[in-house]
């Protein structure tokens, strides 16, 4: 249906805003050249949903399978957060008798998100004259603990060494096997649970590697991926020797704004940048950039990194992370405490220690493509990360902000079934380093606590 007068609502190709710039295409140098190409064999109403189930946040996208139009995207806090902020606490909670509660919480949330996605997609498709949405595929990526809960697999293997993941935590399923048979629209749907590489290196890492082009044959040199979140996956790949090394560090939720007094996810009212300016009596003042240009309400992970940089520059904090005062006010509503700094120190020290070990194992010092992935990594200032000691001092590195690369990789699985089998093959070639068995990790971690 065409309107007599175009009001530029974006729901059709009248002004190009809906039909263009809605497909997953890669514009950044060094990023994957793989783009979402629709399948002409699919009907105009067939859709697919990609899901990234993180420890703290769940995100999804909805695409048409015929022509790869992005119909809807959404994210929210993981319902399991009430049971613990990290996977270790949730595994402990599950093994103490609350497994079914954790499983039900996640299943209920994902089922509700799929219903929401179907409703939103149907509205868009009706506006395009394509009829009722038909859900054909769901591609899921997550860390191994989340994948275990999604597939109703046991989590005992995460509690003691040697760690292991049940085989059914990955694979291809009928939708009703995962989400139940309450919704009739799942009858024609297939679910792809991304393969994992190790006990704590899940499908989210594999999907991120896929979207960042790590498996492309025409690359050379070294590529490094750092998918920063509550669980941080780090991968070093030498395209010339085909050596794949990866690890996972439990950095905690501080990067995503949780566990911080005034922390929260990036959104309207979030402080995303902090700059120090000279104040009265030698005490610095801090200028904040706030999303939406409104009153500051919280500070997100990227804003916290910039705050640490500003505190160091102004002398408000020393190299050991000690504040001159117990609390630093950034505004009337947003402040940073000494405990907040300590929580962040533990998170950034984990990342730096893990990176240093993997780079040393791979004999890599500089001159490589460094992909920063995850919601936190999207707008991360790499210079500030190096200054505050979150990353080692790197030379001649090409920093590439990959956004939610895991979700982008899961989206790719919707359009090419062969990619799932390729991921299964790639997963077997990755060497996983268990940092718990590396004698140097603790020393590097303690050293990296300082700024």
Give a written overview of the molecule:
The chain has helices at 87-127, 144-150, 175-179, 203-211, 301-314, 338-361, 382-387, 405-413, 418-429, 441-448, and strands spanning 46-53, 57-64, 70-77, 134-142, 171-174, 190-193, 222-227, 231-238, 243-250, 270-277, 285-290, 298-299, 327-329, 335-337, 369-373, 398-403, 431-432. It has 451 residues and is an alpha/beta fold. It has a six-stranded mixed β-sheet with strand order 3-2-1-4-6-5, with helices on both faces. The protein has a six-stranded mixed β-sheet with strand order 16-15-7-8-9-17, sandwiched between helices. Strands 11-10-12 form a three-stranded mixed β-sheet. The longest helix has 41 residues, at 87-127. The radius of gyration is 22 Å and the shape is globular. The protein starts with 45 loop residues before the first strand and ends with a helix.
């Amino acid at each position: 249906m065409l309107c007599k007068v175009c009001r530029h609502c974006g729901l059709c190709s009248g002004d190009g805003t809906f039909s263009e710039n809605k497909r997953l295409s890669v514009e950044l140098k060094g990023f994957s050249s793989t783009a979402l190409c629709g399948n002409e064999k699919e009907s105009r109403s067939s859709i697919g949903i990609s899901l990234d189930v993180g420890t703290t946040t769940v995100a999804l996208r909805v695409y048409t399978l015929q022509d790869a139009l992005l119909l809807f995207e959404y994210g929210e806090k993981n319902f399991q957060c009430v049971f613990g902020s990290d996977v270790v606490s949730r595994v402990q909670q599950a093994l103490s008798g609350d497994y079914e509660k954790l499983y039900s919480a996640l299943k209920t949330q994902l089922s509700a998100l799929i219903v929401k996605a179907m409703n939103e997609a149907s509205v868009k498709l009706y506006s395009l004259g394509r009829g009722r949405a038909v859900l054909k595929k769901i591609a899921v990526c997550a860390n191994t603990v989340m994948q275990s809960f999604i597939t109703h697999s046991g989590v005992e293997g995460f509690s003691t060494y040697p760690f292991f993941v049940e085989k059914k935590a990955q694979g291809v399923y009928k939708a009703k096997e995962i989400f139940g048979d309450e919704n009739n629209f799942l009858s024609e749907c297939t679910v792809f649970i991304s393969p994992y590489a190790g006990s704590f290196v899940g499908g989210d890492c594999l999907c991120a590697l896929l979207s960042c082009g790590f498996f492309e044959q025409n690359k050379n040199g070294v590529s490094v991926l750092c998918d920063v979140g509550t669980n941080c996956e780090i991968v070093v790949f030498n395209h010339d020797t085909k050596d794949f090394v990866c690890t996972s560090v439990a950095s905690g939720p501080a990067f995503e704004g949780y566990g911080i007094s005034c922390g929260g996810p990036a959104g309207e009212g979030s402080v995303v940048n902090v700059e120090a300016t000279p104040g009265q009596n030698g005490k610095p003042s801090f200028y904040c950039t706030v999303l939406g240009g409104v009153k500051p309400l919280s500070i997100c992970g990227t804003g916290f990194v910039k705050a640490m940089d500003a505190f160091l520059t102004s002398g408000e904090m020393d190299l050991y992370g000690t504040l001159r005062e117990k609390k630093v006010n950034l505004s009337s509503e947003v402040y940073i405490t000494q405990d907040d700094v300590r929580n962040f120190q533990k998170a950034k020290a984990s990342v730096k220690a893990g990176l240093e070990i993997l780079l040393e194992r791979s004999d890599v010092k500089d001159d490589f493509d460094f992909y920063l992935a995850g919601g936190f990594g999207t707008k991360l200032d790499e210079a500030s990360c190096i200054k505050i000691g979150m990353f080692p001092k790197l030379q001649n590195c090409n920093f590439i902000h990959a956004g939610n690369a895991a979700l982008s990789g899961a989206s790719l699985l919707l359009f090419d079934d062969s990619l799932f089998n390729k991921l299964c093959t790639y997963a077997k070639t990755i060497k996983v380093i268990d940092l718990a068995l590396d004698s140097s990790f603790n020393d590097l971690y303690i050293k990296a606590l300082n700024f």
